[in-house]
Amino acid sequence: MATIIVMNGPNLNLLGQREPDQYGHETLADVEALCIETAKQYGHDIDFRQSNHEGVLIDSIHEAGRLIKEGKVLGVVFNPGAYTHTSIALHDAIKGAEVPVIEVHISNVHARESFRHHSYISPCATGIIVGFGVQGYALGIQGLVNKLS
Q1: Residue 126: what pLDDT?
Q2: Is 85 annotated as a binding residue?
Q3: Is the pTM higher than 0.85?
Q4: Is 91 annotated as a binding residue?
Q5: CATH class, range 3-148
Q6: Which residues are catalytic (predicted)?
């Protein structure tokens, strides 16, 4: 049984209160419970993380790369939030640590403001899920398991 790391970027700690018309009413705790239940169906554990700090997320990617090589982690489901559109450093960390990442976005970023249409994460992601609400996390876990198991 391998662990799947679920990472969440800036402002995702505000789920349920921040723009509920865009992001829904589920909280980050609800997302964590969904991820744990979904992973359990596939015989995996979840390591659930959230940070508003880019460096903490980069350190988590580096750690994931090491744990993947040790056979302890399968991969990462990652909602980078606004860092999607700005962070070359996260892109480089994913590539450098050779981490299989499923990029997840709750909203359809391509139907929103034009600055949200570009992702620095997508070119190095194993797969991308957008616009399915928090169910995108469950789809991301399923996709990661199906692709890598």
Answers
A1: 98
A2: yes
A3: yes
A4: no
A5: alpha beta
A6: 23, 105
